[in-house]
Amino acid sequence: MSNHKLDVETRGRELILTRVFDAPKNLLFQMWTSCEHLSHWWGPKEWPMDECTMDFREGGEWLYCLRGPNEGDESWGKAIYQEIDQPDKLVYKNYFTDSNGTVNEEMPEMRVTVEFIAQNGQTKMIETTLYDSPETRKSVVEMGAVEGMNSSLDRLEERLAEIHKSQKPTT
Amino acid sequence: MPQDTLSATFGALADPTRRAILASLTTGDKTVSELAEPFDMTMPAVTKHLKVLEKANLIERTRKAQYRPCRLHPEPLRDIDKWMEQYRRFFEESFDRLDDYLERIQAKENTDE
Fold first, then answer.
1. Which of A29, A50, A84, B30 is the most exposed place for a label (fewest CB within 10 A)?
2. Residue A26 lies in a domain
3. Which residues constitute the domain of residue A96?
């Protein structure tokens, strides 16, 4: 395995993950666009992708299931492609769903942008997630004054304060 | 973490009045009438919101005489924090696997040539 590290950054309502891979941009783009490739890497080691159907076109859907180590551990998700700009960029909305692909309306919706930038034979991949439930974030900011919050929530709160400041429209 | 608990938290936080109620409780316990004061709402309407918050485990109603003041219960909010942490870890682990997979398929391509 290479020594490339994941870089994590928050900016406004966005969470930005950046990592460099030792592969050309075209190949990296392909990794995202077929069930065959995704089955080798999508999901944590203990929660690999176990089912996948994909209609790769703008407006098309990708439905997948991750299965965990215990009987009955499963998590369904769906992506709807918003923008496909091969091999530079991919934009999709991500939802929590049931096995039929029915969206769980109470969970936050996320808009994910994946960008691929070639650099010296490697590819920098930037995955930006925009949270579409700013009210939730805001309310957590308002909670910041609560006594006894743990330090990790304090860190979250700092990030959220930033989000609160920059937040204007609701998507 | 159980997804239904998280959705209960997100569901409860989805309403602006309920968020305002929670924000108000960050300064200390309050009775239902104290909570109702800043809103142009009837007591039953406020009580309805409190029930949602109570069900999501975001507040608790203490048993102090007839007042039953409400108290903030921040634990579910920590779950949201944990969930965000999980989200980051999801990609960290996936990207590690992607790295290995890319190495394997590129090595294979080179031997094929």
1. A50
2. yes
3. 20-132
What CATH code is carried by the domain that includes residue B15?
Answer: 1.10.10.10
Q: Given an 8 Å threshold on Cβ–Cβ distance, is A139 in contact with B13?
A: yes
pTM over 0.80? The answer is no
Return the biggest CA–CA distance within chain A. Answer: 51
State whether B106 and A15 contact (CB < 8 Å): no
Domain count along chain B: 1
Non-local CB neighbours of A116 within 8 Å, separated by 6+ positions: A25, A28, A29, A87, A88, A89, A123, A124, A125
How far is Cα A37 from Cα B101, in angstroms, rounded to an integer? Answer: 9
User: A152 and A114: one domain?
Assistant: no
Q: What is the 3-state secondary structure (H, E, C) of B44-98?
A: HHHHHHHHHHHHCCCEEECCCCCCCCEEECCHHHHHHHHHHHHHHHHHHHHHHHH
Asked if the structure places residue A13 within a domain, the reply is: no
User: How many Å lie between the alpha carbon of B29 and the closest alpha carbon of chain A?
Assistant: 11
pLDDT, tens digit, for every residue of A119-138?
Answer: 998 999 999 987 765 555 55
User: A148 and B74 in contact by Cβ < 8 A?
Assistant: yes
Q: Based on the domain organization, do A123 and A147 belong to the same domain?
A: no
The reply to whether A114 and A157 lie within a common domain is no
What number is the average pLDDT over the span B40-65?
86
Which residues span the domain enclosing B85?
3-112
Q: Look up the ipTM and state it.
A: 0.73
